[in-house]
Amino acid sequence: MKGLFDALEQKNRPRKTSSAKDFSVSRSGASLTIASSVSSKSASAFAPSSSSSGYHDYHIESKQRARTIVEITRKTLLGLLDNENENENENEFENECTFPSNNKNQKNFQYLSRDELLIGERLATGGFGCILQVHASTLSSSNKYVMKTLIPMSRAASDAKLISAAHQLAKERYFLSNLSHPNIISMYAMSKGGLSVIQETRRLDSYFIIEEYMPILLVDQIQIWRQKQSHHRQYRWNFKKKMNPQVFLEQITCAVQIASALHYLHQERVIFRDVKSANIGISAQRQAKLFDFGLAVQLPKDADLDALQPSLGGSRVGTIRMMATEVLRKQPYNVKADVFSFALLLWEMIILDQRPPEGGCGVYGSRPFLPSHWPFTLKRILERAWADDFQNERPHMSEVLVFLQDLQRQLLSELDARKQKSRK
């Protein structure tokens, strides 16, 4: 659901004192440790009534309109299905979907009705949906959860808006049902009845998914890194750069996790299409995680990752400031569009106090500034990853991931050497 977490980004902006949340890197470099000040809410903080959280009900005025919304939404989703049959499935359309490696990705989810949920605070509201804290007796009490659902719109909302809202959430539900990776957000439950529940209840919010709670977003973590960098003395490393080595290691470790998730998606023939700091959370389990698959697209299971996808040209999809030049030009593209966006994200993570231009990178070569003290190899991989010639010069995520893992090992070795030297 485009724009949904942009509101959450503002709500969860960290205060000037960053002691409440801290990031550290384990020796293995595989995980990121976060201590959050977010307090655990007991079940008494939730209520079955939507009024407790300022949430209001909205019923679609007629079953005919609800049916129209559901039927058209189903038709817009047919492009997701690789083995779609012509018979309408009255249960969940996700059951008709098959990923290239679907068997290994099958997961068990709980199917709940809205009446079984205790709704808590509304955390974010966007153009097409909202996120609320949620609890259910069947869910583990040791974890925190959020419900992502369709926002109760006014009666003045057009059918097109209602269909778009349902389409975005159904896509996310589809992808999270089939994907399984430690750096992609986990879905634990979903509404019973699939899209049909909207028609049966005439309530948009009867269709939902329940995901793990993200204490903070990457956009917030960047600000924490910035504070730590500004209050930390500058080190000169053996490859002649001035940076806070611990912060730099944390940044690269986080980048490794995001790159790993994108590499996995591309292997599954999925293009994420909206890589940005507001779409990456930091979990309580020490992992950076991609979320918000409303703009993602699945390619055919036998698709050549280097081949252009003509069906994807003709429109701009994603966030303009993070958009690949071929997407800005509305030309056919492939999975390497995500590589371009990831390069801009990595630059934003390390530069700390700047963001890519709102109007997007110049289609004829304008790119963000690369400081001279950054490692040459890092600057080179960024230049290649955001190269305009994506078919010949821009690498795949697999190559970017290998580079980042090598850099991560180098940084860990450097820090170990410094610690050993300080003990002498």
Automatic annotation (TrEMBL):
Positions of region (Disordered): 1-29
UniProt xrefs under PROSITE patterns: PROTEIN_KINASE_DOM
Domain Protein kinase: 117-424
InterPro entries named among the record's database cross-references: Kinase-like_dom_sf (IPR011009), Prot_kinase_dom (IPR000719), Ser/Thr_Kinases-Pseudokinases (IPR051681)
A GO molecular-function annotation: protein serine/threonine kinase activity
One Pfam family this sequence matches: Pkinase
UniProt-listed SMART domains: S_TKc (SM00220)
Name the UniProt record assigns to this protein: Protein kinase domain-containing protein
